[in-house]
Amino acid sequence: MRKTAAENTNFRLKAVLDVLAEGVLSGDPQNAGTVLAEALVRVPLNAYEAELLSGGIPRGHKSLTTATAKLVKAGWLVKGRSGWTITEDGLRATVAFADAEAFSAALDAGTPVPAGTPLPVAAPVKPAAKKAPAKATKSEKAPSKAAKVVDKAAQLIEDAVAPVAKAVRGKKAAAAETSVEAVDQPEAVAVAGDFNTLLGAPENWAPQYDEAQMQLDVLDQLWKLSADIPAGYYTFKIALNRSWEENYGAFGAFDGANHELHHDGGQLTIRYDHRTRDITVN
After folding, report:
1. How many other C-beta atoms lie within 10 A of the C-beta of residue 239?
2. Per-residue pLDDT tens digits for 12-58
3. Is 29 helix (H, G, I), strand (E, B) or coil?
4. Cβ neighbours for 232, distance < 8 A, ≥ 6 positions apart
5. Minimal CA–CA distance to 30: which of 148, 159, 183, 194?
6. 3 state SS of 273
7. How far is it, in rounded angstroms, from Cα 133 to Cα 222?
């Protein structure tokens, strides 16, 4: 039976938790990008989900990224500046709702993890094989689990996002050949989001105000904004020239999904690279 896009997204959310749990058990945690890529490998995109949106991101990838907020709401995932972390309740959820359909139903219904659910345990380690007569060279060693995940993620990108990847590589190659002085920068760059009033602006999501503007560092050609804001969950986009006519969201996508920020409180610095559309937050 063919699954709907919503069902596939929920199944991928289960894969996200499974990958994070496996990382905890193996001591080999993965970053958010690799986790999402592995989830798409385990539950592949169908033709509809693989369609590229206006920002160049596959429909299913964007849906999954947005839907991870459901895991946060359930208390199974924490998104922080240092990456994504599965909670203890999230680990127990992988045991309580091991079946994909049961997991999907529990997530949609807000079903809590049953009391007494044990934490997952690592698979038993197989006895070491007898020593081979000849020691394998470094180049002959089997690839690590992390390397396999990276390989699968690369294949996914090649199949579903090849046009976008090619464009990004072209932009980066062009940037590498361009001197710092020759970079064509916009007249203004704003961080427009739901915390602009905390910066002193009259309203949120309004890129025209001075308080939302970033400052260009001429040495590294990065736009920067630093502020001290309270702990909380915030969303924002990068908007150019004090309007919404040209704006960039998650993954540097034009008019893409909002950037998500889980802030612990205190000093925060957002950096935007107009050459690649990348942002960093610390």
Report:
1. 25
2. 999 999 999 999 999 887 777 788 889 999 999 998 888 887 656 78
3. coil
4. 195, 263, 265
5. 148
6. strand
7. 55
